[in-house]
Amino acid sequence: MSLETEGYVRKTLIPPAPPPRRLGGPLAWVRTNLFPDLANGLVTLAILASLAWLVPEALRFLVLDAVWTGTSGEACRPEVVGHPVGACWAFIGEKINYLAYGSYPAAERWRPNLFFALLGLGAAWMLWLDAPKRAWGAAYLFLVFPVLAYALLAGMPALGLASVATGLWGGLLVTVVVSMVGIVASLPLGILLALGRRSDWPVVRYACIGFIEFWRGVPLITVLFMANVMLPLFLPGDLTVDRLVRPLVGIALFASAYMAEVVRGGLQAIPPGQMRAALALGLTPLQATRAVVLPQALKIVVPGIVNTLIGLFKDTTLVSIVGIADFIRVLEAARADPRWSAPAVPVTAYAFAALFYFAVCFSMARYAGFIERRLAAGDAR
Amino acid sequence: MPDPRSTPRWRALVVQAVLVLALAGLAYLAAANAAQKLARQGIVAGFGFLGRAAGFDIGQSLMPYAAATATYFDAFLVGLLNTLLVSGLAIVLSTALGFAIGIARRAENLLVRAFAAAYVEVFRNLPLLLQLLVWYVAVRVALPAPDDPAAWGQAVFLSQRGLFLPRPDFWGFAALVPLACAAGLFATGLLIRASRRAVALGQKPVPVLWPGALLVLGPPALAWAGLALAGHPVPVAYPARGPFDIEGGLPVRPEFAALLIGLSTYSAAFIAEIVRSGLDSVGRGQREAAAALSLSGAQALRLVVLPQAMRVIVPPLTSQYLNTTKNSSLAVLIGYPDLVHVFMGTVLNQTNQAVEVVTLTMCVYLSLSLATALLMNRYNARVAGARR
């Protein structure tokens, strides 16, 4: 041992530790998990104290002191009703149709409802892994459903469906439409881009790299602004683009770049031997990619795709900045209603939005985690 | 002999040539359409508009900016500096908070683990835009009304218009103070190098933390006191109550505070997840070996586990930093004058130079992304290079 390292070496023995006092039972569990030492014990007590304050407070606000019925902000003012007021659920109750459909004509609201039902069918078909005929489900969701949805929502006079201007769409409907367009357009585009990025042809490869890195390098807001002001400039003649379609184009391009990177991760995880084996069997490179590599790659990137979808769903809120009436924007419009001016209303509105987004994103994240565990279990066999 | 399985060479060439032609044709058509429409609207293409007078005011500025004399280029710079300021601070704060929460997710204490997990799930699963709206309302509700600001010794004021601090003016002799601070930073850098070299040679590390803090803070304080004694005190502009509002000083706006808090807490949730996966990637045996060497839990974490976890942490951390910078553009929602708000908002509306404004803004973000990626790649090479 050299002199230099001597500083690190202990010169005396550590006194032996006392035997553990208790190893099993609930008391030992509490001791090891909650009070292992003084500092941890103090932290435990502090967290317990704040929970003891927070939980009753939240319960009081959300349920006990909440106002459930009423026709105006008067019902949610403490000085009018004479006791402390929590959440003003009466406000949400009155505005719920506006939050769901925006200004979509009341007589035609069965159309968005049918749209939600058709979407639910397609989503369940894709998300339930043991569902029968999942290839048909994919064909339905990516080919049939978009056409149906467009005919249903925008209207098709030939079929007796009155046309509804996109300016009237709003709320949850627009949020779902934007997310759906994002996912339906970005998945095929993203797969193409990911394959192109791994191509042997330099022009294709560099075009794909440039495309992907460009969209990933700029914030979504600038993309939405660009779609808003520059898309109409690029089109010939007096061709204009619908106000709602502009951000949709921006979101689709933006999401496809992120999707491409997710798919590329899956492609890279497939051992090159798979491709070589397929070529050795006499498949062309195109056939090998389509029938051997891509199915395996797509299977393992399902969690990544769902995570991208969560990000996309949260990012759709940005379209409210360029003037599209998505869920957040109609919520802001609803809470600015002078008839419902009460201090509890904005808090209620934000709490409702938070609960809504949390429920959707959290359950999607749980689903991604479930798939991940299932895939890991499959690999472990 | 060419590989019989690969596509014939001529076909590859033809397909690529067609692709190039198609892309070029598309670009040409778009450019021609845009040029025609711009000409019809009477907009002169080019960046000449940057030299014209802007004529609008900006709420917060790191550089001298006056509505009367400033050009659009000045406005661009102010927006860029504001973006850099808020994203830089948010990156620092979110890293500190994110590491704390990520480490807490693997803490001994069950409640601490549960609290950290709840934090991550809540902040990660809500849109940033909604969080910013809530923080903005919360910050303004928590602050005193503008006509009755909280004041500390007539030097610091706090109201819904912002926090007003005294602003020292480091020109002329007073420039000694920042110079002294820079010298202290440089000396600390030398100290860190000396310490690293000592460790590499198997010697005891040179203490860095306290001497470093003394070196960075001591000389500027001495310079400040010395200047005051020598009869050239550092001029300080104090805020004062004006007829309508508090004037002068260094204002920190509530928009800035809300954006900074929102961005930091949101990014911290993602960084916590990155840190947790990094900690999980270090084998259990490392901790046990550290414990066997009688290192305490904190020492094991700092000296054994974290340095190894950094290899896994750094690459995703890089993209998270880029995300934070890009997410700072949500400032436009609550009115903090960042690059997007000032340039893509106000300047674009005033000048209608859509192509130039969009191009310039996107180029800024692209080069920020590129610069961060390059810096982090260098750091990553160093961290990964320590692999044995």
From TrEMBL, chain A:
Limits of the ABC transmembrane type-1 domain: 172-361
Protein's name in the database: Amino acid ABC transporter permease
Alphabetic keyword roster: Cell membrane, Membrane, Transmembrane, Transmembrane helix, Transport
Family annotation (PANTHER family): INNER MEMBRANE AMINO-ACID ABC TRANSPORTER PERMEASE PROTEIN YHDY, MEMBRANE COMPONENT OF AMINO ACID ABC TRANSPORTER
Compartment list: Cell inner membrane; Cell membrane
Transmembrane segments: 38-55, 110-128, 140-162, 168-193, 214-235, 247-267, 300-324, 344-365
InterPro entries: AA_ABC_transptr_permease_3TM, ArtM/GltK/GlnP/TcyL/YhdX-like, MetI-like, MetI-like_sf
Membrane-protein topology: Multi-pass membrane protein
Family, similarity comment: Belongs to the binding-protein-dependent transport system permease family. HisMQ subfamily.
UniProtKB/TrEMBL annotation, chain B:
Cell location: Cell inner membrane; Cell membrane
Keyword Membrane: yes
This protein's record includes keyword Isomerase: no
Membrane topology term: Multi-pass membrane protein
CDD domains in alphabetical order: TM_PBP2
Chain segments annotated as transmembrane: 12-31, 43-63, 75-104, 116-138, 170-192, 213-236, 256-275, 330-348, 354-375
Gene3D superfamilies, sorted: MetI-like
Residues of the ABC transmembrane type-1 domain: 80-376
Predominant place of localization: membrane
InterPro entries found in the cross-reference section: AA_ABC_transptr_permease_3TM, ArtM/GltK/GlnP/TcyL/YhdX-like, MetI-like, MetI-like_sf
UniProt keyword terms in alphabetical order: Amino-acid transport, Cell membrane, Membrane, Transmembrane, Transmembrane helix, Transport
Similarity comment: family membership: Belongs to the binding-protein-dependent transport system permease family. HisMQ subfamily.
Name of the protein: ABC transporter permease subunit
Upper taxonomic lineage: Bacteria, Pseudomonadati, Pseudomonadota, Alphaproteobacteria, Hyphomicrobiales
